[in-house]
Amino acid sequence: MNVRILALAAVLLPAVGFSQTWTARPVPATGETVARVVMGDASELVVEVTNTAAASVDARLSEVSFVLPAGYQLLGGLPAEENPNWKVEYVDSNERRITFQSTLGCVDNGRGLARNEAARFVLNVVAPADRATDGTTERLVAGTYARDQCDGTNYTYNVNNMTPWTRAILATNVTLLPRVLAVNGATVARVVVENRGTGAATNVTVDNPTSTTSVPLTTVSKDGSKTVAVRSAGVFAVNLRPTAAGAVAARVRARTSNNASNAPLAESPMADVGNLVATADMDVVDAFIGDQVTLRMTVFNASTTSSYTQVRPRAPVRLGSAAATLVSGPSPESVAQLAPGASAQFTWRYQVSGTPGASYQFQAQVDGTLNGSAVAGDLVTARKGRIVEHRVRLSQETVSTAATSVTVAYTVQNRGALPIYEVKLFKPAVNYFAVAASGPQAFGDWIVSSDAAGYLWESETGIPVGGDATFRITYSGFTAVPADTAFRHRLELNQGWNDPRIRVEATLTLLAVTTAPDVARLTGVARDGSVTLTWDNPFNHGGTLVLRAQGATPNTAPTSGVRYAVGEALGNATVAYSDEFSSASSFTDTAVTNGTTYVYRVFNADDEFRYGPGNQPTSQGLLVTPRARVAGNPLWCYSVGLSTLQQPVTELGVGIFSSFNDSVVGSLTNTVNPSEDGAERFRPVKMTGLIGSRFPVVPLLGRPGQQWIVVGDQAGVPAVLNAATGEFLWKNTTLGLGNISSFPVTQLLDYANPEYRTTYSNVDLAIFATRNTSAQNQVVALNAATGALIWRYRPGDLGMVSGGMLVDYTTNRLYVATKSGTSTATLRVLNSLTGAEVARLALGDLEFGVVRNATSNQILVTANDGRVYGVNPATFTTAWTVTVRPTTARAFTHFARPLGRGFVVSTADGRVERYEMDATNVPVQVWSTAIAGPAGSFTLNQNGVARIYVGSSDGKVHQLELDTGLDSGQVTVGPAQAIGTPTIDHTVSRLHVGSSDGRICAFPVPF
Fold first, then answer.
1. Structural contact between residues 478 and 432, judged by C-beta atoms closer than 8 angstroms
2. What is 268-282 written as a DSSP string?
3. Residue 332, preceding bond cis, omega within 30 degrees?
4. 172-203 as b/e: b if 16+ CB within 10 A
5. Which of 507, 645, 659, 962 sits a CA distance of 20 to 30 A from 133?
């Protein structure tokens, strides 16, 4: 008989074998005297089972089945982590029954529970919300049984004798800020108490918080009693002072004055008190199997006089039943010095896996040196996370209480085994979240209805397995809070009538607004006689104020509550634009003079005319210079405010792509309409981390007429973006690469040879390499259409990869240049189809890209020590070596660029030089031209006249004659500064180049 059927039959069939006794008792949480669950809320009820069989009988209890009281919902359950040799065998949500069995077989030692042995089980339940006060006589009901599923022995127990648990109407959550402070410092516990019952809770108070450790918490003051209506919340502030050093959490109880209602104890996240103090946090506490989570430890020097040196984190301690594999970290490995009042952050990346419900948690600790002596911080614990199959993500996790008509999107993600056909959002605290008349919004085949408790969406097709769906509701307004306060937003998911309901939740924090938020992604395009600014408005937006100053940052911020008119002076600046009650996110300023440099600051204003800081993209503002479209001047310059020295990527006749900081940008080429020339192709697209190199833009298999950006970042996240829209095709956050700073490369099926086509009949490859400080650098090849891993090369001795790689399509070989340190073999040759190593060469530190000279069919390798190598692609040996500079310092500023049968180099000592093959097939110098701080070069051959273009540290791009090296013309991007490597669109005769002051400019060529 099937064991599941057998388990059910045990309830229906007469007992076989002798009857023995057992007990079940609900286990109080830490600090409690009784177990508590909350009405209408997902709660954990821990039940301890003990085998109390007679001493004369050798009987084992290996199956236990619990039936909840009428009105309860059974969401599921798990064996407690301390007794893992049990499993959930049977769940019937309609019968409110859950059955656990020992995972050990009938012949295994240790099966189930021997006499006087106990095990604990965690039941996930929702208690009925049908009372105005606590229920104190809650017990399991008839049908609850225990037995030995092997020999048929039944265990008897009168559930009416069971110790009851309490069903509470109040639920509590608590935060503690700040969480790092000195002894006797001030911190505030903010307690949110929700009424989940059927009547108002009067005279609700909170007890003085107690400490979870030996660190005393003295209550300085706290809010008085409040009345909390049904489905409402009361917010209490408790001012605390810790009087000793150590890690501590505040444990708080809310209650009514007559004790008719007592919320379960709630604990704050852990804080740390002392001098060298820390907190531990995780970014994801509801992870899907295989997700990566980040653990962050923030270390703070609370001393006012002492500095710590050699601050270094210990390896975190993992807790819980889920598996957690270290992917990367700590980052950084250490901090040299932590001055008084300074802080530092260390992060680790883990990949988690396990069965749904398995938990993961981490403890972290820091070491340092104080006055030559070693000191250790306290062990601090991050909040617990769990492996889940379902979760919800909110479109925004914070909202200003000054905002109105805010539509919040709840995205439900289904990674379970069944579709989801109903989604119910329980009303969040109704006295803080007012729902607009439009309320929840139907979409697709999802219909929506509401009742007193919440809003229900229903669909016949549902959310498929592996799918997501987004449910929107508009809130008309929010009640003010004196400090930022987090509120729970709960949802219930229904897979079918006979299946347990699923509860998921997230928090939405109401902000106590003192200033408006900043605009985001501020950029500008300077053209002939105009400057066009573009930005993103935040959700709390009522209007915009734009200040413009000549040659300097506007030095005076606007005063909240004051309206300013266009043309009005404010400090050293002039009001260029002002609006209110507007959704405008762009402004073209024509009151400018060509050749004059301006700095703009853009201030968001809310409806009450509170202004944001105006610090986008930085506090220095945005620098632009409009210029006439005449010889020597740019056609346009696109300003982003942060260095844009990466070489732009050209889509011929259409536009260019580049990057700054963590963002990908695209600009359009329009030769017909100068007012649209240089306009944004899409808003800057943020990656997870800094973008350390330029990137390829390529077509992909099966997507004719489309171009795709293949890019990686220093957070180790590779991605592919649609070059027309900036939308992500995919972004892989699960590989744990660490730092991608080199140019990614692709191998495309449409251009591949038969060997490639035999191996990959329908796959393009995108290949990325890492620049980590450890020996665990790697190269990975991904499916360019999906981001799925194809192969990984991680030999354990691969140095940092900083420059670009090279794919040789004719031989299916991948050349990877690295720094030495972990190995002297700095040039690796791999099979690009498999990642297998083919050859390795010791060529010194290599920080520049590897390139192929198509004329000589040799691989050019540029070494830091001033040498350029020609490598034979057939034998993987050096065909020649040219010592451009005999130095131990970094000799070049860029890789040697192939030209004819030779190459052009830019040297760190301020020269651009051309080399060409002599009669012995060894390159010799043809000419050398002095260029200050030269960047890499680019070549244009127009009407039979070939020229080389190179950026310089003098703020200019120089035009050199190919034959002689004569510096025949220059254009100025800006004042003396580094100018990047240019690129040229030969179809429209345009050069594009970036600068260190945050501009990307287009110039006609030749100069």
1. yes
2. PPPEEESSEEEEEEE
3. yes
4. bbbbbeebbbbbebebbbbbbbbbbbbeebee
5. 507
pLDDT at 16 > cutoff 60: no
Handedness of CA 81, 87, 93, 94 (dihedral sign): negative
Q: Where are the alpha helices (DSSP H) in 751-883?
A: 754-759
> Would you state the structure tokens that stand for residue 851, as one six-digit string?
């390139």
In angstroms, the CA 590 to CA 216 distance is 64
Burial (CB < 10 A; 0-12, 13-18, 19+), residue 411, is middle
**CA nearest neighbour of 162 among 137, 133, 145:** 137
Nearest to 893 by CA among 880, 870, 917, 910: 910
Structure tokens at 167: 């069903």
Phi, psi of 754 (to 5 degrees): -60, -35
Are the C-beta atoms of residues 37 and 167 closer than 8 Å to each other? yes
Residues 974, 981 contacting (CB under 8 angstroms): no
DSSP letters for 477-531: EE---SS-EEEEEEEEEES-TTS--EEEEEEEEEE--SSPPPPEEEEEEEETTEE
In Å, the largest CA–CA distance within the chain is 106
Give yes or no for a cis peptide into 617 (omega within 30° of 0). yes
Closest Cα to residue 76, out of 14, 32, 114, 124? 124
Give the containing element (helix H, strand E) for 504.
strand 502-511
Tokens representing 269 are: 């996240």
For residue 418, the SS3 value is coil
> Which amino acid does the sequence have at 959?
Q
Q: What one-letter code names the amino acid at 733?
A: T
- Whose tokens are 């959310």? That residue is 463
**Could you tell me how far CA 660 lies from the centroid of its own chain?**
19
Average of per-residue pLDDT across 240-261:
96
Digit-coded pLDDT (tens) for 309-342 = 889 999 999 999 999 999 999 988 888 778 788 7
Backbone angles phi, psi at 45, to 5 degrees: -105, 115
pLDDT at 607: 64
What are the DSSP E strand ranges found in 40-131? 42-51, 63-67, 73-79, 86-92, 97-102, 118-126
Average pLDDT of the chain to the nearest whole number: 93
The set of residues, in sequence order, having a beta carbon less than 8 Å from that of 576 and lying 6+ positions away, is 546, 547, 548, 566, 587, 589, 591, 600
**Which pLDDT score, from 0 to 100, does residue 332 have?**
80
Identify the pLDDT of residue 18. 55
DSSP β-bridge partners for residue 580? 543
Alpha-carbon dihedral of residues 625, 958, 996, 939, nearest 10 degrees?
110
Q: What is the pLDDT of residue 582?
A: 74
Closest CA to 138 of 74, 198, 68: 68
Name beta bridge partners: 697: 709
Please say whether the beta carbons of 765 and 757 come within 8 A: no
For residue 754, the SS3 value is helix
Instruction: Encode pLDDT of 963-983 as tens digits.
Output: 999 999 999 999 999 999 999
Alpha-helical regions (H) of 901-999: none
Predicted pLDDT of residue 11: 40
Percent with pLDDT over 70 in the chain: 98
Q: How far is CA 141 from CA 64, 71, 460, 611, 959, in A?
A: 14, 12, 35, 60, 89
Lowest pLDDT segment from 10-14, 752-756, 768-772, 842-846: 10-14
Q: Is residue 561's pLDDT more than 70?
A: no
Beta 877-883 vs 897-899: how paired, if at all?
unpaired
d(CA 926, CA 181): 66
Do residues 471 and 410 make contact, with C-beta atoms less than 8 angstroms apart? Answer: yes
Q: Between vectors from CA 596 to CA 590 and to CA 600, what angle results, nearest 5°?
A: 65
3-state helix, strand, coil in the chain (%, to 5): 0, 50, 50
Q: Please name the residue that has the structure tokens 């190593």.
A: 837
DSSP states along 644-664: --SPPEEETTTEEEEEETTEE
H helices within 867-959, ranges in order? none
